[in-house]
């Protein structure tokens, strides 16, 4: 649970910096904060399902639900659309890989979380506006940023060009690729992407998906 407390502390106490209507906090990047919260929310959703599955006391379920609520709220307000999509895909993968192990209460708990998230998106105008651009695909500028990042990455694929090198390389429009994968590849190359993947996925999220819902969640967290 250390990752949960550290991310929440960073978000609410270290810095509440807002750019436009998007929360970036101490990471100075909406996508970086969104990525961290995607990992956090995914583990919490798993923990919620396991807590309900094991018939835990109501206060424990409520506590996990509150953590999901706070983390989900911050995730939505980062405006990081890629992190939203990743969170949805993870939840769907969790349900699909554990469907036969999950009882009806666990499925209801996950469905309730998804319903609340959908309601909040429709309720908050800033989040809804951002969500609409995702659904309608209204981000042509991003395509130019991604193409530039990928083409430049191919010229130095092993270790990239270093942190915050986008502007130095003559990147168009803004000072970042606006895609976490492209950003890692451009800055740190294949080596950096492999390190990030190993840290956040193979040792964390993949274990959540792979093992039974009855696996000790505290170990995974």
Give a description of the structure.
It is a single chain. The protein has 221 residues and is mainly alpha-helical. The chain has a two-stranded antiparallel ribbon. 34% of the residues are buried. It has two domains: 1-137, no CATH class; 139-221, no CATH class. The longest helix has 31 residues, at 180-210. Helices cover 71% and strands 2% of the residues. The termini are close together. Mean pLDDT is 75; it is low at 11-19 and 211-221.
List keywords for this structure.
mainly alpha; 221 residues; two-stranded antiparallel ribbon
SSE inventory with pairings:
Elements: H1 2-14, E1 18-19, E2 22-23, H2 30-53, H3 58-78, H4 81-98, H5 104-123, H6 125-136, H7 140-153, H8 180-210, H9 217-220
Antiparallel strand pairs: 1-2
- Whole-number mean pLDDT: 75
Structure annotation, total helices: 9
Shape category: elongated
Backbone CA Rg: 18 Å
| Distance between the first and last residues' Cα | 5 Å
Structural class: mainly alpha
Low-confidence stretches: 11-19, 211-221
| SSE arrangement, N to C | HEEHHHHHHHH
Number of strands: 2
**Spatial arrangement of strands, main beta sheet:** 1-2
The fraction of residues in strands falls at: under 5%
Helix content: over 70%
How many distinct folded domains? 2
Largest sheet: 2 strands, antiparallel
